[in-house]
Design a protein that fits this description.
By secondary structure, this protein is mainly beta. It is 0% helix and 17% strand. The chain has strands spanning 12-13, 22-23, 28-29, 38-39, 44-45, 58-59, 64-65, 75-76, 99-100, 113-114, 119-120, 129-130, 135-136, 149-150. The protein has a two-stranded antiparallel ribbon with strand order 1-2.
């Protein structure tokens, strides 16, 4: 007698026309009867194969980010940003305008430092952007190029990153 079709087991998936269950890959989970793997949600990861419940998708660690379907333990958070637990993508939490962070793997907004005088720091800055020669900026926490002021008549601003004019 012919055998009946069998429901795909938990931890596997069976596309239409399957002759055998397929391995449910890391970064996903496969409930009973899955036709395709279900990707772990953004902000989570799963390093194991053949998982059958969404609880196999673990929260991404602080200092890392985990896009949808992450199969490793996530990617190191880039400089200019911070990544609390369950961060989904690299630019989710930028350092605010007027601040910067030159280090990777940071986890909180306090890691973003005030932009120094002589420079400006757009949102998500990994380093201060120096004011160009001929301009200066006496203020800290500046966010925009226009905050670098032209050197006034009777003074020189011969180098970049100046916070004051030279007689």
């Amino acid at each position: 007698p012919a055998e009946a079709c069998v429901e795909c087991p938990a931890g596997k998936y069976c596309p239409i026309g399957s002759t055998a269950p397929q391995t449910c890959s890391a970064g996903s989970w496969c409930p009973v009867g899955a036709q395709t793997p279900h990707a772990c949600p953004a902000g989570t990861f799963n390093t194991l194969t053949n998982r059958d419940k969404i609880t196999a998708c673990l929260p991404c660690a602080p200092g890392r980010y985990c896009p949808t379907g992450t199969s490793g333990t996530g990617t190191v958070c880039p400089a200019g940003y911070y990544c609390p637990a369950q961060t989904a993508y690299s630019t989710q939490y930028p350092c605010p305008r007027g601040t910067y962070n030159s280090l990777t793997s940071k986890t909180e907004p306090a890691s973003c430092l005030a932009c120094p005088s002589g420079a400006y720091c757009p949102r998500g800055s990994s380093n201060p952007v120096p004011c160009t020669a001929g301009t200066f900026n006496p203020n800290t926490s500046s966010a925009y190029l226009f905050e670098c002021q032209l050197c006034p008549a009777g003074y020189t601003c011969p180098t970049s990153s100046q916070s004051s004019v030279v007689d």
